[in-house]
Specification:
Number of helices: 8
Strand content: 25-35%
Number of domains: 2
Helix content: 25-40%
Number of strands: 12
Distance between the termini: 34 Å
CATH topology of the largest domain: SMI1/KNR4-like
CATH architecture of the largest domain: 3-Layer(aba) Sandwich
Structural class: alpha+beta
Order of helices and strands: HHHHEEEEEEHEHEEEEHEH
CATH class of the largest domain: Alpha Beta
């Protein structure tokens, strides 16, 4: 399944609603920057670029009016929720249709690390991560010691399929039908330090909670 279809399915986006920018807005940006966006990034802005739940519920997709180049020639188009991390594409990679995405904690020092091997993988990982962090209607989170036992972690890996190779961050993604998402945050050694769950479907949410049987630090249904 194409990554944009996966995002539409997870967020249950209406097909008859425009969620993105139009061609004229993209063309204006490209004239301003005197470059063409990679096909994958261009398609994303056109398809879902204006959807706040997908792109601005935690980390943030840069609007077309703000997108620009860093001093060391990276096209910065995504930022961490406190602007601690910026993500961009190297100017030399822009002609590629689906180039890698790099992150930096200090672009002034020109220290960039590869976050994802393709733009599509990066945008999918952000949609999943944003969804689990509140972009989806039904969410839960835990970092409780009693929830992070090998048995509780095994309940995730046994019942949901891991989606490997999407991000180089310390995150692991799990889903079966792309209607829900489970995310492990991990230490450098691979130890799980947090579990995040999200879906836009109430029946899926109830099934997730029933299967996992965790205490949870936070559940959206407790706030209702």
């Amino acid at each position: 399944m194409h990554y944009l279809q996966i995002i539409h399915k997870l967020y249950n986006l209406p097909e008859d609603v425009n969620h993105g920018y139009d061609e004229a807005e993209i063309a204006l940006l490209e004239r301003r920057l005197q470059v063409q966006l990679p096909a994958s990034l261009r398609q994303y802005y056109l398809s879902v670029g204006k959807n706040k739940m997908v792109n601005d519920s935690f980390n943030r997709l840069t609007s077309l009016g703000e997108i620009g180049f860093s001093e060391d020639d990276h096209l910065v188009f995504y930022e961490e929720n406190q602007a601690v991390v910026l993500w961009g594409i190297a100017k030399a990679d822009l002609p590629a249709p689906n180039p890698p995405v790099y992150g930096t904690y200090d672009s002034a020092r020109q220290e960039w690390f590869m976050d994802a091997d393709t733009t599509e993988h990066f945008l999918l990982s952000m949609a999943w991560w944003n969804g689990a962090l509140g972009g989806l209607t039904h969410t839960a989170f835990t970092d409780l010691e009693e929830d992070l036992t090998p048995e509780r972690i095994a309940a995730v890996t046994a019942n949901w399929q891991e989606q490997p190779g999407v991000s180089n961050q310390l995150l692991r993604f799990f889903t079966n039908d792309f209607e829900d998402i489970l995310v492990f945050s991990t230490e450098q050694n691979g130890q799980v330090n947090g579990v995040y769950a999200g879906t836009n479907r109430q029946e899926k949410y109830k099934a997730m909670l029933h299967t996992l049987q965790m205490e949870w630090c936070y559940r959206s249904d407790r706030d209702e």
